Amino acid sequence: MAQRILIVDDDEALRESLELVLASEGYDVSAADCGEAALARIEEHPVDVVLCDLRMPGIDGFELMPQIGRQLPGVPIVLMSAYGTEDLAVEAMRRGAYDYLAKPFQPTEVVLTLRKAYEREKLRKANELLQRDVQRAVGDRPIVAASKPMIELLELLERTAAYKTTALLTGESGTGKEVLARAIHAQSPRREESFVAVNCGAIPENLLESELFGHAKGAFTGAARARRGLFVEASGGSIFLDEIGELPQALQVKLLRVLQEEEVRPVGESKAQQVDVRVIAATSRDLESEIAGGRFREDLYYRLNVMHLQVPPLRERREDIPLLTDHFLDHFRTLLAKPVRTLTDDALERLSSYAWPGNVRELENVIERAVILADTDRITLQNLPETIVSAIGEHGGDPASFSLKRAKRAVEADTIRRALTATDGNRTHAAKLLEISHRALLYKIKEFGLRD
């Protein structure tokens, strides 16, 4: 299906010229001579990309962008103007335009820009569909992700879900391992059966065996009646053993037997009972170190670690921070009945550069606190904890400072600053010094938040 392009410009000659060029490239092209006509047209016929003049009679390009966004959320908008200045280009992108073209421009430049815009929109829609599927699967605890490591993890998770194979989720505390375990269950053939979660470190050792495997009446003091264990309750479904590294060694042996024989023996019973359970385990400990230290059985580790899913810490998936922030903001705005809709740029920048030792759980708590403290419809720096406001970002004492990717970004930003200083802020000359295009420099200035 041909990509649908809408041209919005009051210059008839330019409209016709662009229509001819783009039609010859295989696009499905429509045109409108003003903002009002554009809105009416996309209401009848949605489009994939909008190519829009900035200055027009009536509704101008800046006013038109949010109105198009309400009708076609996420559609890329490329602004055009014959009154182009560098500041105007940066302002256009700051307001949400995908790109900015200064008139006059070459046809090849328009085609290349539209191709990139369309590819971006395809990726956005693909991720949106993935998130919708995952959100349906895990209910009110959706997985929010756009970063490469998380998308790869979700793809592995989807393949893992189809089989009864045991899975081991590893990662720092607060990274969302239980949410992922629920997603495995929800996307599996067992989704209609029970999902039972148990924290192996939260139950006293003397009660844990009874909790997991059940007990007979009179098996110990206080056992006034027989009790089914959690493995029996989960039979036909899945059991999630969180913090498996906390499991006492005596129970490690019994769990290994359950995995090998698919049967449990309640405390005080002489007969074993068959169970059909998919086991998903998780830990924030380094189990290989625990094995080396004699605290965890190697044979149990290999039984659990058939499918290993390593959950990255939030500092290694920073692209997800704005998405997670929006998700938690939507959640707490509704839950707390407060009209907080967005964050200031500097507040989001601090959240994005913070190291997040508590990972996603810490971010969720910070947003809840900020929504409570916000006096307007925006979260500001004043609503964030001092530990985040005063933290050293990319930079300094943050453990993430060892990241080569972040170091490269810091060097790149510093080089651009020095080029701008050397040219007294002349971006055209700075782009030549940097050996990049003028448009690429504008993107970099926006990306790094640089100012003259």
Strand arrangement in the largest pleated sheet: 2-1-3-4-5
Summed up, the helix count is 19
Per CATH, the class of the largest domain reads Alpha Beta
CATH homologous superfamily heading of the largest domain: P-loop containing nucleotide triphosphate hydrolases
Beta-strand level of the residues, as a percent range? 5-15%
Quickly give the structural class: alpha/beta
Instruction: Give the N-to-C terminal Cα separation.
Output: 44 Å
Question: Residue ranges: pLDDT <50 for 5 or more in a row?
Answer: 132-140, 393-403
CATH architectural grouping of the largest domain: 3-Layer(aba) Sandwich
Note the main sheet: 5 strands, parallel
Q: How many β-strand stretches?
A: 14
Mean pLDDT: 84
Evaluate the radius of gyration: 28 Å
CATH third-tier fold name of the largest domain? Rossmann fold
* Coarse morphology: elongated
Count of structural domains = 4
Could you please describe the fold and organization of this structure?
The protein has 452 residues and is an alpha/beta fold. The protein has four domains: 4-124, Response regulator (Rossmann fold, 3-Layer(aba) Sandwich), CATH 3.40.50; 148-312, P-loop containing nucleotide triphosphate hydrolases (Rossmann fold); 315-389, Helicase, Ruva Protein, domain 3; 403-448, Orthogonal Bundle (Arc Repressor Mutant, subunit A), CATH 1.10.10. Helix content is 49%, strand content 12%. The protein contains 19 helices and 14 strands. The protein has helices at 12-24, 35-44, 61-71, 86-94, 107-138, 148-161, 177-186, 205-213, 230-233, 249-261, 287-292, 298-304, 320-336, 345-353, 359-373, 386-389, 404-422, 427-434, 438-448; strands spanning 4-8, 28-32, 49-53, 77-81, 99-102, 167-170, 195-199, 238-242, 263-264, 273-274, 278-283, 307-310, 342-343, 378-379. It has a five-stranded parallel beta sheet, sandwiched between helices. It has a five-stranded parallel beta sheet with strand order 7-8-11-6-12. Strands 9-10 form a two-stranded antiparallel sheet. Helix 6 packs across helix 7 (177-186), helix 13 (320-336) packs across helix 15 (359-373) and helix 18 (427-434) packs across helix 19. The model is unreliable at 132-140 and 393-403 (pLDDT under 50).
